[in-house]
Design brief:
The protein has 285 residues and is α+β, with helices and mostly antiparallel strands. The protein contains seven helices and 13 strands. This is Class II glutamine amidotransferase.
């Protein structure tokens, strides 16, 4: 189980610290005291050089893309403060807490990136009856070639592969996420499918989890770090409109007061936001 954060601006390059403020940005980072199995981010940026400029190599891109992943906890990674101050018109950040014995290797660190899309997931896709993770289910209907393209070896990589398959068939990003969750729920109905998907134009944030109660393991883990006040709404995602246009959304785990504009995203709903204009809307799964 992991902590997710994503934002889409009105086309302006804003850093994580710009979006959250210094105090909350540091609170988000300190969650890696618990979610200490590495971190990663993907940023899409308005380029600082002329687009399509021929400088001797490939022409400069329409959108600059940066992906960083590490098996070091964010609170100990010296790169994290540098990256969190980098401006981007859209960004997603992931703090990992590995589940189901999935290995702590760079291939399983998120966000995954393929076909210009970055993806991250908060959940453990396992059977409620046997406890076995989806990675052990070799009969599950996922395109294994696309799965290999994600670079991952985890349940989250399978989730992403299902989305990619539908995007390649011509579905929109929100519809691709919806169809992937519908298929996964046939086999693993009680798993959490909270996720964020980002393209160079759009951010999709989904809250989708059948279980409302928090596991004893999570509660005990948070209590052991003196952070039990953040355990009761572990699967909740909240969002806040940015003052300059756009939206930020995040898993629980740091201060998200309603008086500062934070609103709970209803279950089985998603945010669809443009990182070009900042316009966003909610839709059902």
């Amino acid at each position: 189980m992991c902590r997710l954060l994503g934002y889409a601006t009105s086309g302006r390059n804003l850093s994580l610290q710009d979006v959250l403020g210094t105090r909350l940005a540091e609170q988000y980072r300190q969650q890696s005291m618990i979610h200490n199995d590495g971190w990663g981010c993907a940023l899409v940026t308005e380029p600082t050089v002329t687009r399509h400029f021929s400088d001797g190599g490939a022409r400069t891109p329409e959108t600059a893309t940066r992906v960083y992943k590490s098996t070091v906890a964010a609170r100990f990674d010296q790169i994290y403060p540098i990256v969190s101050r980098q401006g981007a018109r859209g960004g997603i950040y992931h703090l990992r807490l590995a589940s189901s014995g999935l290995p702590l290797i760079i291939e399983n660190q998120q966000p995954f990136f393929c076909d210009g899309l970055s993806f991250m997931h908060n959940g453990d896709i396992s059977s409620d009856e046997t406890g076995l993770n989806i990675v052990t289910n070799h009969d599950f209907p996922v395109d294994r070639d696309i799965l290999a393209e994600t670079g991952g070896r985890s349940d989250s990589a399978i989730y992403f592969a299902l989305i990619l398959e539908r995007v390649r068939m011509g579905c929109t990003l929100p519809e691709s996420v919806s169809q992937a969750v519908a298929l996964l729920r046939r086999y693993y109905p009680l798993s959490s499918y909270n996720c964020m998907l980002q393209s160079e134009n759009e951010l999709v944030v989904l809250r989708a989890c059948k279980r409302t109660e928090v596991s004893h393991r999570v509660i005990e883990l948070y209590e052991s770090y003196g952070m039990e006040q953040y355990a009761h709404d572990y699967r909740v995602i909240r969002y806040r409109k940015l003052n300059t246009g756009g939206v930020v959304a995040a898993s629980s785990g740091f201060d998200q007061p309603a008086e500062y504009g934070w609103t709970e995203l209803p279950n089985d709903h998603m945010i669809v936001a443009s990182n070009r204009t900042g316009a966003f809307r909610l839709r059902t799964l």
